[in-house]
Amino acid sequence: MKKVLLSLALVASAQAFAADELHLYNWNNYLSDATAKRFEAYCKCKLVQDYYGDNEEMLAKLAAGAKGYDIVVPTGFAVEALVKQGKAQPLDKKQLTALGNIDPGYMNGFFDKGNVYSVPYSFTTTLLGYNETQLKKAGVLDKANSWALIFDPAVLGKIKGKVTVLDSQRELMSAALMYLGKPANTTNPADWNAARDVILKAKPYWAAFNNQSYIKELTVGNIYVAFGYSNDMFQAQQDAKKAKRPFTLNFSLQKEGNTLSLDNFVVLKDAPRKDLAYKFINFMLDGKNAADLTNEMGSGNPNKAAKPFVKPEIAKVAAIFPGASDVGRLQQLRDLTAKDRRELNKVWSQVKLK
Amino acid sequence: MTLQQRIGKWVLSWPPLVYMVLFFLVPTLIMVVAAFRYPGDYGGLAPMYSVEDGKVVWDLTLENFQRLTEDALYFDLFIKSAGYALATTLACILMAYPLAWLIARSPKRYRDLMLLLVILPFWSNFLIRIYAWMIILGPQSAFTRAVNWLVTGLGFEPIQLLFTPFAVIVGMVYVHLPFMVLPLYANLEKHDMALLDAAQDLGANAWQRFWRVTWPLSLPGVFAGSALVFIPALGMFAIPDILGGTDSIMIGNLIKQQILDTRDWPFGSVLSIMLTGGVLLIAALGAAVARGGRKRG
To answer: pLDDT of A157-166, one tens digit each?
Structure first.
């Protein structure tokens, strides 16, 4: 009996403790420490974070029955998956007083019309980062605003072996599709084959498919052009500056269009503390709090109110704050059906193996 | 054998047996079943059957196997991977043999220390060591610059080392070398030196003594080391990912891509089964050759 009482007491105290905890299941390194501390002080609660490295990992963990998380931060297509699986809680808009701070261009995504379930938080664009000094020397700096820099053999001939591209079938195929003027989300096999042919012609000029080390390769000057994510390029640029390298790194959007990965706050249906979840989302909608991540990591920011708090040299970068004319050219990738995914996979095998 | 002895044997051998059944046989069977199923929407597998009007409808397919034959690409990749693994194994034999010989012929008190030095690299993480090769082979390293100084001195164009098949083989040899040294050492250490003296007395020169005495006797060690190097090298994916260029992927990369990136577990399973089958075939061949060798000896 004593034991039962003791364990009951333990459970009760755990409950009491949980009363002041918000559980955020977030991407690695996707919330500034300063912001987290400020939120804890503001809500007089504890913010507990758990991390994932990609959407599939998060979906798989939730599908396997993980409980206790209040908020997750999925990319567009993963929001759709959570909604379809009945895991997302419809949001009570009356409680989200600062929702108007989000740029309307990022609302109403294909994955959640009317933002019933999700609030945009942050995004990355997939683009080209480059060594300005070396491209100028090679005489191809004027091509950096176009996908031709990594797909046109005439341009590539001048920077052979100095280019790496993401080892991601959706991202690389999308870039080739946009270079050809096709929509990134096409499922037309003829378009895919055309994109494959573009890639196969360019491939002999590339050094490698590289997801892991392009930041470092750019920073030390081994590679002149890398196809990758905007926040990585920002980091490479800052690192090179800090290390006082004898060259400048830069990154920019491509005129044919880029893909955009928008990450969103979603409250889970079985969230233990929905009240704290709303408090957190409102807190993050505030411009000053929303600006922290952009200032630290150069992540794209859908929050209009954040702009005054962002360092001016960052605020003017189109890849971080796309202008009105750029937003129209940014495309979000949709999830493919199992059948389309398999067809694309076959095309991708030819890209990788030929 | 008495009943007691027989029971004793079973009692002793069931833990490893259960372990093998649980962690090799069961996963292999799951993989075989998965190879006949459809992929699920968010990774994983689609349900194996559905119930319609009270009747069970099976959702199984041969499509995953047909895909292998649709395109010669996959077969070519198997051949290429086997080529990488073979090159790695041969390089390991060439490098490990003299080293194992040296250790086996050293004074006894130094041998443990030398063996320790061989396995010392295992004390640091595998990926860290591969990343270190990225730096060594990178265009700005002292090594690469020295190589290119030599190459251009001879009147050739400067070459790139990182992101080439050469880099992949260097990485694989580096990682697998100890697996070749240890079985070779275990074998060479047991050789009876009197045999070499006898061969010398009978007029055999150094080469003949090696080729007709030491080498045939060391073959079991060579086979064991080759199996320990060839098999893991065949399924390698991390090294081609990190050190390889656009044309140096292996079968392991393709399997990893099916499971993690494109969420096509069934096709990944088909490829894995082919790889496992290939490895078993090679192991069986190796065992047959080794048995034949022993009979002759």
So the answer is: 999 999 999 9
